[in-house]
Inverse folding.
């Protein structure tokens, strides 16, 4: 991967899971990374590890479900001169896996949408003005194959379908300013959050229908991140890149 020294990348949900892996990857490529997470101590640890490895990073306490919290992200972005890349990994899963439609708690749907959809929108609003001032940028949202209809995570699937719609709408409205907006839609990937949300039997069933018959890892998504955040990708926008080992194709 070619180095990109001088860019600033913001990663929401950057203290753990996919966000942490993405933050490390972007820092290794030369980006200064703003590690933004509700877990302030975790964000500080992640930023510290990046700095000890020779990279550049700073933490930011951010709860994307709280409008007032996003002001801290705006200040952090201003402190490093603006953002060139935004990766929105902050997310929430269902706590109730299956059930009748009337049994699904509406309050939980509200929470998942507030984090996954509205939270993505808030992070974009915080970063776009500086991208505009810097002549363009790359926004990478986190969708999911659950957006096409999840049998076990209805709230999460609903929210991720909305993220796909938001991604395409943003791409349409920001393209003339040099800002591209694309989504990565992972299949099942081994993170702590996913392992809590998906039953072991479900992992096995998915492996059986994949073209690549193994469980995905965060490392499997790094190529997609590199492609969608690349400075030369100014003509690639409004796309959803599915990385699932071939589940959708199967």
């Amino acid at each position: 991967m070619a180095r990109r020294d001088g860019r600033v990348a913001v990663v929401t949900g950057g203290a753990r899971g996919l966000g942490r892996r993405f933050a490390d990857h972007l820092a290794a490529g030369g980006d200064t990374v703003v590690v933004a997470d509700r877990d302030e101590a975790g964000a500080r640890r992640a930023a510290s590890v990046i700095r000890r490895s020779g990279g550049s990073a700073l933490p930011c306490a951010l709860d994307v479900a709280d409008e007032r919290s996003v002001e801290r992200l705006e200040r952090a972005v201003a402190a490093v001169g603006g953002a060139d890349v935004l990766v929105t990994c902050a997310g929430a899963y269902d706590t109730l896996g299956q059930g009748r439609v009337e049994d699904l708690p509406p309050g939980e749907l509200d929470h998942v949408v507030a984090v996954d959809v509205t939270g993505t929108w808030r992070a974009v609003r915080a970063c776009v003005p500086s991208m505009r001032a810097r002549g363009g940028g790359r926004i990478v949202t986190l969708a999911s194959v659950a957006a096409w209809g999840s049998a076990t995570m209805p709230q999460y699937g609903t929210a991720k379908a909305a993220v796909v719609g938001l991604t395409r709408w943003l791409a349409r409205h920001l393209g003339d300013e040099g800002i591209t907006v694309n989504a990565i839609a992972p299949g099942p990937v081994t993170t702590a959050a996913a392992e809590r949300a998906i039953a072991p039997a479900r992992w096995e069933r998915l492996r059986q229908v994949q073209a690549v018959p193994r469980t995905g890892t965060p490392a499997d998504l790094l190529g997609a991140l590199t492609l969608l955040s690349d400075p030369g990708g100014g003509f690639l926008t409004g796309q959803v890149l599915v990385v699932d080992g071939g589940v959708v194709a199967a």
Observations:
- Strands lie at 8-12, 32-37, 56-61, 85-88, 137-142, 179-186, 240-243.
- The mean pLDDT is 89.
